[in-house]
Amino acid sequence: MALFDNYEIWWITGAQLLYGGDAVVAVDAHSKEMVDGLNNSGNLPVKVVYKGTANSSREVETLMKAANNDNRCIGIITWMHTFSPAKMWIHGLQQLRKPLLHLHTQYNAEIPWDTMDMDFMNLNQSAHGDREFAHICTRMRIRRKVVTGYWKDEETQKHIAVWQRVCAAWADAQDMLIIRFGDQMNNVAVTDGDKVEAEVRMGYHVDYMPFSSVMPYFDAIKDEDVDALVATYFKEYDHDASLEDKSTEAYRKVWNSAKAELTLRAVLTDKGAKGFTTNFDDLGDANVDVTGRGFDQIPGLASQRLMAEGYGFGAEGDWKSAALYRSLWVMNQGLEGGCSFLEDYTLNFDGKNSSILQAHMLEVCPLIAEQRPRLEVHFLGIGIRKSQTARLVFTSKPGTGVTATVVDLGNRFRLIVNDVECIKSKPLPKLPVASALWIPMPNFEVGATAWMLAGGTHHSCFAYGVTPEYWEDYAEIAGIEMVHIEKNTTLENFRRDLRLGEVYYMLNKSLC
Ligand code: MN
């Protein structure tokens, strides 16, 4: 998880000098022990760095400013060992621009009934100290995560770990560049939106790159590098032996796919981009079959493989999904199960087991594959380049997962999250694409209805291991609305929540 090694979380212990220097020394020692304990638990993906006790307004403000300016610091954990009068946190909290987790815990687990005296009480005041701190956060409308639990408990550590992963994704998004190869698919509403507001609210930047600017990268790709990548394909994926016959069109299509992948990777690397979108109506030179310059097919295989590498991807110009997928991939590092960009493809009515096939014309990430992906070449009659097209074909692992999307409602972004149950899919011999099959929670009817009432896209970003808690943390950090469709969702309550959201965001202009 090299990505997480670039980051650290700062721990600040709240205290005050009322109880004397000895108390602060003890607070300091306890804090160090707790931070070491967390780091040695093996449950936290990002290192926690103890930054000492904060005993005054000036100390708090100094620490918060330092956190803002430190690129390694992606979030702050605060904990009040003693009572820490919260007015001393006001100026620091006004400054803080990094995610905040307030940990409500205590150094010792149980009350030492027989020995507890006032010296002990002067030290162990989290019970009321954390409430004082929480009050000022709420009073100041500071967005944060509150984790309550004993610091040695795995459950507590897991809540912190979730937030750490989201902090990493958030930090990663703040210098994220998404490149659009081609514009949005014409006339499509749900994948479009306000790119300026997206950068203000979620941090990432979206640029357009015309295909003419891609061509120099294409021209610079060496044939031997393409040959090597094709050899990698044949090694990594199942395929018909005939596909290796260099005299066939199918082989040429695989070879051209590999060149497209190298081209896209070269552009993304050169620009420092973390994600991209494609558009099947914009693939460069229309005379590619004559000139040999440009993409002779939709670069679906390239998109599949680049997604697996962690590049954000959205089809048809869907830059919001590209950015969200990248963040999901970051959060998902080291978790069980993969993640993918997916599209609601077609419905399967089957009573209580009614489900939705998730696929795309090509671009599904092999990280969610149940079996070794199969490299195949088939005709794809869509878009500007109707052509034999290489792709990876597979079905996805059964199991529970969560899918998410962001839509632009005009006055705000809404994150829509749906728990789903992936069930056994079947091969599609006449439609050879990668796919998943799921039942949205609480069932097909309510899940799909709620998703549409919320204005959800047909594109979403899915993972097996990234639970709704991750998305709650993400929405809290970003300050965007989140609606969650899950096993207890009823349409009556969900409609009410949507209406309440309209009022809340109308009144809360700072979040719009
Ligand atoms: Mn699509």
Helix content: 25-40%
Rg is: 26 Å
- Sequence stretches where pLDDT stays below 50 over 5 or more residues: none
Strand content: 15-25%
Bound molecules: manganese (II) ion
Number of strands: 18
Structural class: alpha/beta
On the 0-100 scale, what is the average pLDDT?
Answer: 95
The backbone outline, from C-alpha atoms, is: elongated
Q: How many helices does DSSP assign?
A: 17
Terminal CA distance reads 35 Å
Describe this structure in words.
With 512 residues, the chain is an alpha/beta fold. 40% of the residues lie in helices and 22% in strands. The protein has helices spanning 2-5, 21-40, 57-69, 90-95, 118-123, 126-139, 154-174, 195-202, 211-220, 223-236, 249-271, 288-291, 300-309, 319-331, 444-453, 468-478, 491-507, and strands at residues 8-14, 47-54, 73-80, 100-104, 145-148, 177-181, 205-209, 275-277, 312-314, 339-348, 355-359, 374-380, 387-393, 399-408, 413-423, 435-440, 459-463, 481-485. A 6-stranded antiparallel beta barrel has the order 10-11-16-15-14-17. β10 (339-348) and β11 (355-359) form a beta hairpin. α7 (154-174) packs antiparallel against α14 (319-331) and α10 (223-236) crosses α11. The longest helix is centred in the middle third of the chain and has 23 residues, at 249-271. The radius of gyration is 26 Å and the shape is elongated. The mean pLDDT is 95. Bound molecules: manganese (II) ion. Manganese (II) ion binds at residues 315-316, 343, 360, 459.
